[in-house]
Amino acid sequence: MLAGFLYGQFAGLEVVATAPRPAAAATEAAAVPPRVFDGPVRVRSSVGAIAIAVTVPAAISAALAFMVLALFGTAGPDSIITAALPAQVFLTVLIATTVPSAILVLAIHHIARALRRSRGGEYAAIGSLVAAGCVVLLMPVFGVMPLLLATAVVNGAIMGALYRRFAGIEPVPLPEVVIATDTQALVSADHPSRRQHGVILSN
Predict the structure, then answer these.
(1) Is-contact 87 181, C-beta < 8 A?
(2) pLDDT digit string (tens) for 144-187?
(3) 24 CB-near residues (< 8 Å, 6+ apart)
(4) Which of 168, 169, 165 is nearest to 38 (CA)?
(5) pTM of the predicted model as reported, rounded to 2 decimal places
(6) Could you tell me whether strands 169-171 and 41-43 are parallel, antiparallel, or unpaired per DSSP bridges?
């Protein structure tokens, strides 16, 4: 799934060869301007982007395990233990953190959407804040070491930025169709009749 998603993101598009058209049709097609969209947009919800983002804690843990083992381990850097342990750490952490990381990424995405933030830096900042908040909340429950706070901030920032990079944007959906039985009720939100009541004088 990840391979197909990444290929679709980076491969790009190419023009499909078609049968030659008459000169008049080609001239008419060239005169039509390309379609553009300048309406409101938002970051879309993407399962593939979430799947990529949730691998960040496992990848960082595997890299840290490799560096620690290579620098301070008793085995040499070329031993089989040094070569195999990072892969085991990656799989173990990936299995243990897939669901929590997916929930974290969804929280980052919906918080950013609620705040109407759509840039990669904004997603990274929100991700670091959400991850730091989760660690602070879990400290009294599980006794999490404060040293993990920096790791959580880095993981949250990278996950937020990666999600924004691969999720892309989409147009803001149109509002639902209004079913009205009285045409007089179709007034704007700032119409005086929505804030004031009419008075009918009776004899």
Answers:
(1) no
(2) 667 788 888 999 999 999 999 989 889 988 888 888 888 877 88
(3) none
(4) 169
(5) 0.71
(6) antiparallel
The alpha-carbon radius of gyration of the chain (Å, integer) is 27
Q: Do residues 108 and 160 touch, judged by C-beta distance below 8 A? A: yes
Residue type, 141: V
Cβ–Cβ < 8 Å for 48, 93: no
Phi and psi at residue 20, in whole multiples of 5°?
Answer: -60, 140
Please name the amino acid found at residue 96: A
Give the chain's mean pLDDT: 81
Instruction: Please compute the mean of the pLDDT values over residues 126-152 and round it to a whole number.
Output: 82
- Percent of the chain as helix, strand, coil, to the nearest 5: 65, 5, 35
Give which of 43, 11, 33, 6 is closest to 119, Cα–Cα.
43
Nearest to 56 by CA among 88, 109, 101, 107: 101
* Range of weakest confidence among 2-11, 114-123, 167-176: 2-11
